[in-house]
Amino acid sequence: MISHAGRSASTVGLLGDTSGRDYSVKLHLFNSFAESELRQAIAGLGLRPGMRVLDAGCGTGEALAWLLGEVEPNGTVVGVDLSAAHVAAARRARSPTIRVMQADLLEMPLAAGSFDVIWCANVINHLHDPRLGVQRLATLLVPEGRLALSQSSFLPDMYFAWDSRLERLTNEAVRAYYRDRYRLNERDLAGARSLVGLLRRAGLHRVRARTYLIERTAPLDAAAENYLLEGIFRGTWQERLRPYLSTEDYAELSRLCDPKDSQFALRRPDFHFLQSFSVVVGES
User: Fold this and answer.
1) Taking a C-beta distance cutoff of 8 angstroms, is the pair 111, 139 a contact?
2) Which strands make up the sheet holding 205-217, listed edge to edge?
3) Is 6 inside any structural domain?
4) Taking 80 as the threshold, does the pLDDT of residue 99 lie above it?
5) What is the pLDDT of residues 10-64, one digit of tens each?
């Protein structure tokens, strides 16, 4: 979504982002899966008709229409993303009143004081310098404008309600994989956890937070099953976790993630999934 703070869009970001990076499939799957909670979070922003809104790191653009629905008939929405593939997807879905552009979050060709509200979801964790990112975004706000930073999974996700040990080992394996792949330590990966502190250190006021719970139980609808199977089981875990788990634990995880197995997690009657989505808002 967003590249290294303060450098050109071709620079590799904290989690490997460049203008050529493409994970549009996973973004679309997540937005379809969590649409109800995401729209609830957007409805809680207090948007009004006529407002000017920026979606900073808009991804595949599903939220653009949701934001526009809150500020119509005479409001405007702008979406910005670093990835060319994400921008192309967002442009295909946009309405004539939505503008989508490709740019680095820290080098956006937008005038100071252009927006009443900025929505920035699952983006700040991609920056080498989250505080600088927040400061840059804050300059785009009108006086008393609002910046809303949101992030998934501040609380540990629950995938296997019946096996907390395997769940813990899987989450630890994911963190180890990211540390090794991007040469990061635990503190590097934890920078975005303090959204409240980021907004306050950037000089924003009246900072408040709210966490939404994304909860799904069996039987799953198609959007939930597609996201968990394709976006998580196959797109995030799969072979990349093999080196970080014992042979026995990896075999068990593989069985739970295999639609052909009788113990496939998403078809078990006791499947219960939890994920948090936190929104922190500050005013300029």
Assistant:
1) no
2) 98-102, 76-81, 52-56, 115-121, 141-152, 272-283, 205-217
3) no
4) yes
5) 367 776 788 888 889 999 999 999 999 999 999 999 999 999 999 999 999 999 9
Number of domains present in the structure of the chain: 1
Residue 21 contacts residue 87 (beta carbons within 8 Å): no
> What residues contact residue 83 under an 8 Å CB cut-off, 6+ apart?
1, 17, 19, 20, 21, 22, 24, 59, 102
Does residue 189 carry a pLDDT above 90?
Answer: no
**Contacting residues for 36 by C-beta, under 8 A, at least 6 apart:** none
Domain of residue 231, residue span: 24-283
Q: Determine, yes or no, domain membership for 120.
A: yes
Specify the residue for token string 């490997």.
Answer: 16
User: Using an 8 Å Cβ cutoff, are 253 and 234 in contact?
Assistant: no
Instruction: Report yes or no on 240 lying in a domain.
Output: yes
N-term to C-term CA, the chain = 24
Question: Which two structure tokens, joined as six digits, stand for 121?
Answer: 């979801």
Q: Residue written as tokens 């600088």?
A: 132
Q: Prior bond to 130 cis, omega within 30?
A: no
The CATH number assigned to the domain holding 230 equals 3.40.50.150
φ, ψ for residue 75 (rounded to 5)? -85, 170
1: pLDDT strictly greater than 90:
no
Q: Is residue 272 part of a domain?
A: yes
